[in-house]
């Protein structure tokens, strides 16, 4: 039976609202973090401490929701504790990847401009293909490999144009590449760890933030941030703590709206939405920071964006074709 027109309309309205929320929260999170990490008003040379505080905020929210069971009428938060020995043994290696991922992402954002941020972290797809083959033995089609080749070319062209425009940061680009690598590893190993938490993404996020609070402490010391924190004069500033709190809330909110967008649409639609959002984010950033870019710089962004979108589409088609193949009788479950 066809879906009633009123139900279909309300469904489209819901999808529009969720996707809009994802765009607003995601773009706002990048700008808030950039302000925290590089703004002269904040002027705190302790990017890992800022990231650590965001984990504290996310952990506090998750702990509260786990205690109360969630928000009535909106969503149910799964029960669980991160301090179980068995949970620590299974989740802690993944939490280490999570910690390095968000640390390098924020370090990348500190040293590169928001317009270049997406291109600087664009190699995640390439690393996904490499690690899927090396770690999981999964081959990739020639069309997807071609997309990866274009992504690498777009990344190289973007780096080249950034250097010509005197806005290139080698350190920021290195952090972006390492962040892409860690995100790829995190995505692959998440599939292995999720069964340990009953496939509960929120529970895994709760545990990751709990362990990251502890894992960040030695990284903060090794990065030499204790001196910067000791000499920082604005710890009594309401503006500073307000912006830190907003950054923490954005960090938690992006996880929620990402999961919600995938739930009401599909993983493919989420990838396309994320790619389009990155394009809008780049345009907004160039206007916000009054940055003038040449044609080749914009071309590098378009190559990366288009190649990433095509890669997502090709993978989706491959998955659909694979799902339609008949399963041999000996591989079918007796149940």
Automatic annotation (TrEMBL):
Signal peptide: none
Main location: membrane
Transmembrane segments: 12-31, 51-77, 98-118, 130-156, 168-189, 209-232, 239-258
Keywords associated with the record: Membrane, Transmembrane, Transmembrane helix
UniProt cross-references to InterPro entries, sorted A to Z: Sugar_P_trans_dom, TPT_transporter
Any one GO cellular component localisation term in the record: membrane
Domain (Sugar phosphate transporter): residue spans on this chain: 14-279
Topology versus the membrane: Multi-pass membrane protein
Subcellular locations according to the entry: Membrane
PANTHER family: SOLUTE CARRIER FAMILY 35 (PTHR11132)
Protein name as it appears in the record: Sugar phosphate transporter domain-containing protein
Source organism: Loxostege sticticalis
Lineage: Eukaryota, Metazoa, Ecdysozoa, Arthropoda, Hexapoda
